[in-house]
Amino acid sequence: MLRTPSVLTLYCLVGSIAWAAQMTSESFARQATAAGISQVELGNIAAQKAENPAVKSLAEALVKDHAQTTSELRTIARAESIVLPTALPADADATAHDLSQKSGTAFDRAYLAQMVQDHEKAVALFRGAETTDSVGSDLRDFAHKALPTLEHHLEEARQLDQQLGVVADQDSGPPSAPSLLSVEVVP
Prior knowledge:
This protein is mostly helical. The chain has helices at residues 7-20, 25-49, 53-79, 90-100, 104-130, 137-163. α1 runs parallel beside α5 (104-130). Helices cover 70% and strands 0% of the residues. It has a single domain (21-172), classed as Ferritin. The chain is built from six helices and no strands.
């Protein structure tokens, strides 16, 4: 089936071209780590609160994959003397709080909408890092290796989203939940 990319996907891709030239090893590693920490935290919440077994299964897979990926990233960053965040970013903490207040189908819908949004941005971030010379070769290789898993997570979240009727029209505007991954490059 041929899929038309959402407005958010196109925005992320176009935006990634603009900021990829400014991306550094440190900015990529810090943003990717923050996203990984966020995914683990939100996934742990979803593993406990999700009503739909498929949503719970996705959350558990995201926790496992993002914990492993973040650990690999920390090893590379340590070798390059890059200091990475260790705490949940403030915007992710707010999202985690908002999600923890929901239950049942409302929780599943909000969680999946957030996963689609965050993974669209993560895929754009990793694609940018993979193709940017200002990101060191070890981190470019890491981005290249991790990208298929992120793309798989995105596709799974989209499919579940459609199956559950969570997002009727992705082009109707930006999701209401705040993003966990900023596309702003931090020098």
